[in-house]
What we know:
Radius of gyration: 29 Å
Order of helices and strands: EEEEEEEEEHEEEHEHEH
Shape: rod-shaped
Number of helices: 4
Distance between the termini: 37 Å
Structural class: alpha/beta
Strand content: 15-25%
Amino acid sequence: xxxxxxxxxxxxxxxxxxxxxxxxxxxxxxxxxxxxxxGSGASIIFKANLATTSLTDFKHKRIFKAENGKSxxxxxxxxxxxxxxxxxxxxxxxxxxxxxNDLIIDLDEEGKQYIAAKGGDGGxxxxxxxxxxxxxxxxxxxxxxxDECEVRLIYKxxxxxxxxxxxxxxxSTFLSAVTNAKPKIADYPFTTLSPNLGVxxxxxxxIIIADIPGLIEGASxxxxxxxxxxxxxxxxxxxxxxxxxxxxxxxxxxxxIRKELEDYDALIKDEFYIEDDFVILSQKAEIVxxxxxxxxxxxxxAEKLTYFKQSTGKDAILLSAFNPEYEENxxxxxxxxxxxxxxxx
Length: 345
């Protein structure tokens, strides 16, 4: 199952203790202090990684403890430091404070990293406390504790186009027709249980498109599946709204989804710190397509299209994923999406 949000408990490593030691060699029986300092504790680091596609690695393990530093030794030897614990996350993972909901960092680039819990410094050995007054100190410093904290990770995909619509609107079929993605397709609602990413190669450009599980009325309040995945189209430039033209009231189908976007925007404003306007779904550029046109006659299509325009004030593109009669419309749509990506439109 797709996993895109989790709260983790992190404990960085403690620093090692400093050593109390005195130089003792055959011909130097009363050597001075030579206790080394303790090694630094390991830090816990999140690092964005292209090969990681979800937060599934954290599904069953929520507590992470990094290695402690080793204690110092005689002969002014510093203890070995703990090896940092690097946790790989998908590009697009945001780190939040779970108590305030403040965004800490957005790991939005390959290799970008964040030290979530810093390891403690090692304590000083007694060699560091030698003075002109006290030439043989017998004290050393304890290692410092590493950071301990909770963080919330939320993964939000990067894509150029987010495909939305009610269940069975033909989103997955459309995605498989225009990209190299192979989503599960069947003639019943909620076939798509997780976002599907596909790449459209137009020879002159590449468009990344995401199919979001179908929305239903009340999705923003937790009904159905779509509310769990709307976050994944917050970063996209364009919404591609697919509507099954054979639905009883296509205008109402459109209005239901638009209301869910507006309700979701209001919910997110209340729950999370908003820094960028990419989260405002209802204000994104939108292209409406009436899909599955091969299921109706030309007269029925014309009647429905006229009704839709009059009821919503929106134009719509007629589509059928695999019907060659609509190939020209499909190609025009893809070219239009490419122009939007380039900020030409």
